[in-house]
Amino acid sequence: MSTPVSKNIAIFGGNGFLGRRICETAINRGYNVTSFSSSGKKPWNASADDQQWIDKVNWVKADVFKPDTYKDHLKDKDAVVHSIGVLFENADYKQKVRSKDGIFTQMKNFFFPPTPVEKAPVIEKDSKFSYARMNVESAVILGKTFIEAKEKSSDGKAPVFVYISADKKVPGTNGYIESKRQAEKEVSELEPKLRPIFMRPGFMYDETVHDDARAKFKLLLSFANTVNNTVLVHSLDGIIRPIISTQEVSKWCISKIEDDEFHGPLMLDTMVGKDQKD
């Protein structure tokens, strides 16, 4: 295992829920961090604690579907993290889950469908935010652009491409996990010009951000995991999955970037310690 000498990293979606923690972890590990997003702005709900690292990140506006907006920035990067994508195929779901009880209401409807009298709101699909476009095409475009940017400045060592994938299918979504696996397959085909890493977390929570709705869902899943691990003796391991913090996923992400021999998927069970850590 070795650490990149220049330690330059680009994170697409670095102002998002997980992306910001990858930025933070990388900064704390001595990396030069550039975050790319459609707004180019810092996280919208940064806390006072975040100010210790947030101004050390280079926040850049870019469109992942338009390589000319970021290609030149990738020439000196050792690793690129793709932390963008959609869970639902509609344009405003991220705004909805940021509302007071948005994510809890949507997840509750998945596990406990409303009665015919109280119908759940219909999620209108938006072609611009389809799984194929946001979860697959964006990753392939970014991967190929990274290769092109590094071709003339290559030191013979394959640059690292991290794709934030997913552990299992999310109830209430059709095509989500399939798009994640398709993206993994297509990015894998770029090897050996890239060293691909596929992070497969499950439900994530932030250790420092107290979101009432997400906290409720975390409590529900934690209880289900406890029952599965003790009363049911792991009989529902394939259905009830462990939860993990964004901070823990970020630590694993940077750790595997620094491991020259690692490539391929990093499973949730490994990250939560069910498998022996390497």
TrEMBL record:
This is Unnamed protein product.
